[in-house]
Write a structure and sequence with these properties.
It contains seven helices and 13 strands. It is an alpha+beta fold. The protein has one domain: Alpha-Beta Plaits (2-Layer Sandwich), CATH 3.30.70. The strands form six sheets. It has a three-stranded mixed beta sheet.
Length: about 260
């Protein structure tokens, strides 16, 4: 009697096993390809655009809500101008890489304003759930999305506890060379990685400093002599949703 059950093929299993650790392409539907890529592990050095991203650095930001004015949006404007976000003038569908949030103490009535963006977690949930490896974390702690292999499944958006990721619904025009964007992909704050690799600070921190608020300090969390490390040692700070144990790269004072 013949059987329709296919025999076990050890070579096929061996191929699939190797594919999880190296680049591989698998067809999941006509015209749709699923890419699997190796993740860069913490501690290894990777090359992006010819520049090194080393685990010797862990880039982060300290935001002082006490210095953040509720009527100031300079950080948001600077971020979106720097990265070409919001050029379509459609506020309901335009992504926001950074947004201002107002927190109100119901007992005292005191309102605190602060910017919220990708928190660049040490253990980012977005990376854990991404089926293609498009969501990734560099060795220096910056969390990014590779638009070339993002399939727009939006699993990362659901996994992010900070609502920091956005989906691009429409065709993007006037893109910045250093911040590629594309319809059908997910994006979020890159911590101005192109600036960081050039030895500069983030656009939001620079704009806040120019406005005289100095509410955002950017720097290397692994360097005990950096300004951000000194302030973290001197003043109390907090993580948003610290209970999740994600060890965020963005910290806050005054919340």
């Amino acid at each position: 009697m013949s059987s329709n059950v296919k025999k076990h093929d050890p070579n096929r299993r061996e191929f699939l096993g190797k594919a999880t650790g190296a680049a591989a392409t698998v067809a999941i539907a006509p015209g749709v390809m699923l890419y699997s890529v190796a993740h860069a592990h913490v501690g290894e050095s990777v090359k992006i655009d010819g520049k090194g991203a080393s685990s010797e650095n862990r880039w982060g930001m300290l935001i002082d809500a006490n210095k953040c004015a509720s009527d100031c949006n300079d950080c948001v404007t600077a971020c979106h101008t720097e990265n070409g976000v919001g050029t379509n003038d459609r506020p309901l569908t335009d992504p926001q890489w950074i947004r201002k949030v107002d927190l109100k103490d119901n007992q005292t009535g005191k309102t605190t304003s602060l910017p919220v963006m990708c928190q660049h977690c040490e253990t980012p949930p977005c990376v854990d759930v991404c089926p293609t490896g498009a969501s990734m974390k560099r060795a220096d702690g910056i969390v990014l999305v590779d638009k070339h292999i993002c399939i727009g499944c939006r699993y990362c958006m659901m996994a992010c506890p900070y609502k920091a990721r956005s989906f691009i619904h429409e065709t993007i025009t006037d893109q910045k060379e250093h911040a590629p964007r594309g319809k059908g992909t997910v994006e979020s704050c890159t911590m101005c990685v192109h600036r960081v690799d050039a030895g500069r600070t983030t656009a939001c921190a620079e704009a806040c400093s120019k406005a005289g608020h100095n509410a955002i300090v950017f720097g290397n969390l692994n360097d005990p002599n950096s300004e951000i490390s000194k302030q973290l040692r001197e003043y109390n700070s907090a993580q948003i949703r610290a209970d999740l144990g994600l060890n965020t790269g963005v910290r806050y004072r005054g919340i």
